[in-house]
Amino acid sequence: MRGGWRKTHQEEEEESAFVSMTDMTVSFLIIVMILLAFFATQVSSDDTVPRERFDRVQMLLQDARDELDEAQQKIERLQQELREAQRREEDLLQQIAEKDREIEQLRRQIERLEATIRRLQLRDPLEAYLTRSAEARLEILENIRARLAVDFPDLAVEISNENDALRFRGEGLFATGQSVLAPRPLLIVQTISERLDEILPCYTFGPSTAWEEGCNPAGAVVEAVQIEGHTDSTGVEVSNLRLSTDRANATFIAMRTHTPDLIDHLNTRGQPVLSVAGYGQMRSIASNDTDEGRAQNRRIDLRIIMHTPSQTQEIERILARLRGEEDTP
User: Fold this and answer.
1) Whole-structure pTM over 0.70, yes or no?
2) How far is CA 328 from the centre of its chain?
3) 125-322: what fold?
């Protein structure tokens, strides 16, 4: 408030000085015009004035008028500049107020984050690690989904309610009752294999491991990337089980054929993380009593399973292995 009062007071003093100088100039010119008019009235009609002196007086009078006009124009320009400066000042004050609001929002956000950090620090280290691993899994799924959205804008891909799998409708990859990938679904599956091959090195062991804190600060490890086939309840249960397994196998073979190095990504036990499972109609996610529900159940899931240490000491061993300080068994 005190700084604002000083600024306002200073502006008032400058404006007062400006007005005083202007008034003085105008007053001086008015006095000159009055004197000229007075001298003109003192000249008798019988008196004669040399033409040269008369012309000089006329010139002085015109010069005084011109100077008065210029002074008035200058005053108008200065007043306009003053109004524009005041508008700019109002805009700047508004911008400052908006920045103050943004700073306050950021301050509250920082406080919330600090509170979260304090809660995590108070947690059991094993519980905190498992929480961060679950968050890392969701980031992997969202990353793959986002990249697929760029490659195939019309492809419907959703993340499971448990945040552990990507779901592809069965009709999107396979024709009804079939386990052979058509050209476009094959391209989709091949692209998925490429995206996995780009992401997994930061979360797995093996010859292609490339862990760094920037891509995986939690030190989370993928235990398995499971290709799961599912069907609805239409038909014979055994046939549905076989169909779901065939579809999962077809997806696995297409991914491995296109990206051979995909099986080089290993889990904590030195096994390839890529695996296959067929569940037939046993793991429905919607009711099989409606067409819509059955359509949801006919699907391929790409499920990511994270490694879950049983003891706190294991966390340090995992991090050491990711850093290359301990060999993978």
Assistant:
1) no
2) 38
3) 60s Ribosomal Protein L30; Chain: A; (3.30.1330)
